[in-house]
């Protein structure tokens, strides 16, 4: 299904063939409809008229910017290395070392220098990539060269389904989402979200008394039946709120659950959004981290795991295959302009870059620009200087290579964590859980060990199976393993329930503290509850822990999982 | 009066002696009262516990940040140069060249290198000034080293009058002000502003149907009598709005009028704010640009102007004198914690740094932190890396030296513009205008020239005085000359009025376009009207143009003012 939406290098649709976005101005809230342009910023166009002597803008003199030049040593992206690296040992042994795929993918040359000169010219040129420009006041639109790079990237990679889409820079997806909330939502509205969602996104709407409406998800994202049912049965009288008009979703490597929506689901959700006039906000920080599934040890051959991270061909076909594997963006389905896509450089370059962008219809991007002018004035010029120079140095092809390296790195790290779960627990595959019933889970049990007591269900296969401890679905993207904790395996489960307390709060919090006291820090699942305090019906016996595989070195991850398995086994003893 | 509030190096009040801020929580709006902390950010403290193995935060791996190091060539601030530079010619002649005071003040050594290494350590250390930290996710509070630098700076320079003040970083004063509006104001409120105010500030409240209430100003800022009268006579029934609870003011080098409030006025306004329970938001981008007044040519001696820019002594006494001349911040008077001060690096370092900070009571800084987390996540790490390294390299003393250089540079530029007005027009001093009647204006007339017609009022003194053209007050701070245009000197003035049109709109716009067509760009005063469309009673015959002296090189400024004088003379012919 996905392939039919996939990137094709040669055949990007001519904009002429695509429909224009429809009028969605009724979605703008009162504040946004009332916002006028920054009148001073309106002078910028005159300021750059040739030969104009400007006494207009209150621009500081670049001569007294204390930076004469800036430079950076960057990793080069000239070409993929021809040969795979030495990381091809027996991955069933614990010989995996902290090793970056980047140096492998991009050859031996360690770094390259980029530099941003001062280049003060008397006439302020907003298109120059120099410090006199980038340290100066500038448009909230972002630097023209960076914006053009992004526009070209969106056109080639996401191929929106409507003609008049635009891009608009912001200072990262968290800020971008806050701007979208500020543009579309009224106090007291309701919003559609995944039942577990990113807390940073909640912060934007929670203070506005906006009711989050949980949509059921499984490992492949939103369930269209549940989505339809919520909207079809919405009773404005009973709810005291308008039917939700906005969906916030993280389709790829969802935070915290790690699930990924593929084309078929997206098409269904998109069609429902057309039916119910819902704006889709897709927040896609992990989009390029989508990779092949984890292969358990039993199915692995020596060196196989590495080859699975990328096909490594540095040619057009290799690029095509990379794109073909990516799930299509919601933009791809969007023939009305009702999708706002949030992209960020946080995961592909660095979070400190605080740079991202909106892709949306021109009404929305213009209103978002006005909102950004007021909220941030413009993105940071020093950050823009470095990121713009980096992108111009790498070029489009180089950045695509870089994304392949990023993907390979996180796929490797995902495998580290799943491999470590496999080596610290006994795993049973194809299990059913009362949550996410559409998909199959892997359930972890205590391994038998000499001198340990307890009943052994299957002595031959070597595990004590009367107590499922935790379950997980190996993610295809993102940075997290979402660990389901079988709270009903705890001796106090019934006691806590009988006391009228929520085991998910009491027992999971206890486990979290146990882990932290043993120096392993994870995030309890209730942090991500879209509707905090409201139990997940039918799955009250399951708690969750989010484990990040993105950051820890391999030896620390190994140590952490070994501690975790001991703490969990003891917890359930 | 000011001296009693001035900075004293040794005697900063012990915090113990100062009162704590009073409870101002009733000023928080509904949204702010409803805002909870970012729960994920709450994990940061655990993440840095010694020996903690963290699988918690979704932190990207710093190994795949593509920047290995960053560096910059900066202007050094080691010591003030011993000798004045060569810029000591006869300033009555047009020999002034574009020349920075910076190289003069800071000696000959052209630049120094600062660099930010990668320094990836397995444990994420938020206090390290390295790329692994500053390119990573971080707290919205800002980098600890930068925050500490700022805290120390505020304590030494502004000496707040209450004990429990705090600083909190933001991404510049425009963003900071937006956050303050989002914290304090409800839709439909009213706000106290100077009758001409910064349009960027209007953008934050205008979409919320917040009514700006103009307070009369003269060259020394807000008029306490008018301020008192507005609040004393506020009729909630008639206005349909609560009495204003927030004052937005730019006390030093006000944008656009260039006026500066000194201690006496500030004390009066502060006391009124206590009386009427008003929060004072002082936005001080031009604070350190406050300098001695302009000296007209007649009063100047060769080389005098230069010495006036700074006393140039690079010792404790020189620093004390620099501070003694600065007007005290509203913070200095604040014994209740009702002042929120906005500072920015935009004018002292560079606008592209997009870094500034709040100084306020701890209730407000905590709520502002929560707001920033949602609105921006955190300030840009690349920008913070560079600014933090710069400040650590310069140190407090170096930054104070730098501020003296900035002040001297803009004072010189202010003199360029006033000198050029003096040489292109005939000036009459001590004039009264129907606006800002408390202060004396300088009024410009056409100079007599051979072959020019028209009646000459005072042939001996050489000017045609029947038509005052423009008037101005030489500013002591800021970046602007606020030029009052005598619209009633225009032949169509009565005709336009008789048609029921606003001369300020019709004639001033005509003059603005005339100037732009002759390649001189200025900003028409109505852009800054706090209550647009509402005529300034008693001064309908005065329009304004804002002329920036901050940016243009001297030769361009000269060219622009010569063109301007010709266009204005022709306009009024």
From TrEMBL, chains A, B:
Cofactor(s), by name: pyridoxal 5'-phosphate
Domain Aminotransferase class I/classII large: 128-422
One Pfam family here: Aminotran_1_2
BP term (GO), one: alpha-amino acid metabolic process
Matches recorded under InterPro entries: Aminotransferase_I/II_large, Class-I_PLP-dep_aminotransf, PyrdxlP-dep_Trfase, PyrdxlP-dep_Trfase_major
UniProt entry keywords in alphabetical sequence: Aminotransferase, Pyridoxal phosphate, Transferase
CDD domains: AAT_like
UniProt-recorded Gene Ontology molecular function terms: pyridoxal phosphate binding; transaminase activity
Domain of life (superkingdom): Eukaryota
UniProt similarity note: Belongs to the class-I pyridoxal-phosphate-dependent aminotransferase family.
Protein name: Aminotransferase class I/classII large domain-containing protein
Species of the source: Filobasidium floriforme
